[in-house]
Amino acid sequence: MPWAAVKHDATFQLLADAILLIHFSFVVFVVLGFVIIWIGYFARWKFVRNFWFRALHLAAMGYVALEAVVGLTCPLTTWEERLRSMAGQDNQYQGSFIQHWVRRMIFFELPESSFTIIYICFFALMLLTFWIVKPERRKRDPA
């Protein structure tokens, strides 16, 4: 294989790994954010009531639930798979260390309908949390 092709494949693999890390970060933001909101509620941390943090957090899970209900594949998954294909990689837990372990943490072997139910239930919990731990907008000081 010519050097240019190897370099090209490595670039696609690196981009696919970067997208996988972004995807993993998104999942961590949604799940860990939910836990932090409740811990912060009981610990009286003010930042868990920040309107923009809470709106972004709710919108993130809302997007995932909507994708599941409509039957769309996450664009991050699509881009990663396309880049791995361009790099000549198989998408089934082979490739780099990052790809192998991050994929094992965020992708499970369950029927698609199970994920739809999980996403909708988790989104419902987040809506309930939004109502119980109400976000607050900062009032602007007119001075």
Tell me what you see in this structure.
The chain has one domain (3-132). It is elongated. The N and C termini lie far apart (68 Å). α1 runs parallel beside α4 and α2 (51-70) runs antiparallel to α5 (112-132). It contains 5 helices and no strands. It has helices at 3-43, 51-70, 75-86, 97-106, 112-132. The protein is mainly alpha-helical and 143 residues long. The model has no long low-confidence stretch (mean pLDDT 84).
- Please tell me the total number of domains: 1
Largest sheet: none
Shape summary: elongated
Q: By helix and strand content, what is the structural category? A: mainly alpha
Fraction of residues in helices? over 70%
- Mean pLDDT equals 84
Number of strands: 0
Residue stretches low in confidence (pLDDT < 50, at least 5 long) are: none
Instruction: Give helix and strand order, one letter per element, not per position.
Output: HHHHH
Oligomeric description of these chains: single chain
| Radius of gyration over all CA atoms, rounded | 19 Å
Number of helices: 5
Name the beta content range: under 5%
Beginning-to-end CA distance, first to last residue: 68 Å
